[in-house]
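dumping the sequnces here before i forget
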Amino acid sequence: MKLLVSSAPHITGKDSTASLMRDLIIAMVPAMAASVFFFGVQTLILTAVSVLACVAFEYLYEKMLKKPITVGDLSAAVTGILLAFNCPPTLPLWTVVVGAFFAIIIVKQLFGGLGYNFANPAIVARIILGLGYTGLMTSWTFPATVSGDAVASATPLAVYAAGGTVNYLDMFVGSTGGVLGETSALALLLGFVYLVVRKVISPTIPVTYVATVAVLAVVLGVDPVVYVLGGGLLLGAIFMATDYVTSPYTEKGKIIFGIGLGVITVMIRRFGSMTEGVSYAILLMNLVVPYINKATRQKPLGAPKAVKEAK
Amino acid sequence: MAVFKKLVRSAEGAHVPHYKNTENCETVKMPVPKRVFVSMSQHIGAPAKACVKKGDVVAVGDVIGTAGGFISAPVHSPVSGKVFGLDEIRLSNGKVQVVVIDTDGQQTVSEKVKAPEVTDHASFVQAIKDSGLVGLGGAGFPTGVKLDPQNLDEVDTLVINAAECEPFITADYREMMECGEDVVEGAKLVKQYLNLSKVIIGIEANKPQAIAKMTELTKGLEGFVVSTLPSVYPQGAEKVLIEQTTGKEVPKGALPAAVGCIVMNVASVGFVARYMKTGMPLVTKRVTVDGDAVAEAKNVEVVIGTPIKDIIEFCGGYSQEAGKIISGGPMMGQALTGDDIPVVKQNNAFLVFGKEKATLPDATACIRCARCVSACPMGLAPVEIALSLEVKDVEELKVLHTDLCMECGSCSFVCPAKRPVAQTMKEAKDFLRKAGN
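..and the predicted 3d for all of it:
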């Protein structure tokens, strides 16, 4: 009789890395559909190229270095969709391939692959593309507006920063200028509800992030609705700031992380020279996650109250 | 406030499937096998010393091993028959001495078996020690020692562990359904002789019939409370159970008695009542037999020392090639090396899985999702402990309270990367211990 002798436990839960990533992809479908609806089928092509490039870079890198092939865990595909979501609909396809290279090879694989990246790969790629191809990354196309208002000449945040008026309904539905995944708050919120119901993410980071932005906007006398709906906040808060690898472990840590994101975002938007601040906020907060983790540990059952580390 | 408590320690546990397939299987008595192998080490502490030799004739209840120290328990003959000899076999707790007895099938009861005379705490504890009772929930700590804490006057609560939070196992449930009166009687005795004021019976919400029955049986009894526990693994972990039922936290490194509690498994409590009535020591055990490679899932009462293969045969044999045999539940149970291993006192289940169920998916990279952190009932951070073990950081492992891990397996269960987190936690504990901490 040949029996397998292994360490307990002998059963495991249903969720796997791939199933979580699949849920993330499903949660991004509404935003994807909204982008096709508002900007046309070119957004679908851009997303497909981005996903293919990310998966291909991961596969080639791992093949070359004779590492186990991990494209099956779908994390590269998620990065691909997120990267495309952070690009304007008219971006030339080769540009997104450059972004995919930075996201997968530089940020993810060179740091050890899934689980070891110090920052969200799609965020860093967006920032690099924004710096390297500023013109391409900020040329917006404009869908027909739901409200029938005059066609805007920039993203709602830019319009608002320049003193223009924006329509709340357009921002909520998504008929505004912007990167392809960020415009429809409605579609993003659908994804958010799905992720929370499926327990893929904890709502803590998105809620504290958005709440902080709204509160600070009120305090600083700017329109909180525009700040919440008018830019990349919801996309960032729901899909990028909640990235497991680069967000804190505990609920306490997640609250601090969310508040930090909100503060940095508002500071950049209100006092910086840029109209958008979500990507930089996430990148900066990603970098301090190890410190947040250390400072926000749970108190184990029966352990003495928070003993300071003896030095 | 629940929300604030979650911020201190989320301790969500694991939402394990229940698989209580045998909950309605009334316990069946298995005939005595031809030969039994009675281990001298069926408890935590010093092994018992065998006091019989080849050729001795023994009856049911005769002492065949005397307690080998303060923390130890005697072992009684579960059968009548003739000692075939003494042997050494390898069990999960290492090489142990076994007394091999050829049974005569008569099950003649020893004349020494008679109800003990108990008048006070001291004689009660002595009787329990003589009974050979050990913690039947799985730990196997000698009950006589447990019921004699140094700070007896500070202990006021008996917490009866009837959570049975492991999937598959229904042996404790059957104890309540079939012998609920014994449980109440045993609890009364412990309450009386230890001069306690409160008895809390903790039962998971997935056993409504047991909750109803125990509530009915304890109606009007002063100090008795039936506490419904959430159906989330691991409610039956001692420290978790105490916090859940009394709100008290057992300090790190301390025993439950430090917060005025004594925790006993429900089957142990039922046994106390039966022993006080009859004087029959612990020689049989109810075990749940289940799994997809056993023909008929059952609750079986077996004599201690019965080889597992005989029990499986009694349950209709293997229905497919066995890939894994687990003694205990699937969360904390031990995978056995063979089916010739005999039953010991603290066994409560044997699960036989076919090849497919026996194999777990391969581990992939940790994605730092921190599900292990949210799940850990002790509030530990397995993901950080694993990283600290990787770099052999002794100080950090201490700061992270690694030694509080009770190996409940919740972290492994919830891990989406299918990493053997609990095994890593165990390694981290061993590493700390070897480093002198």
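Chain B touches chain A through 73 residues (CB under 8 Å).
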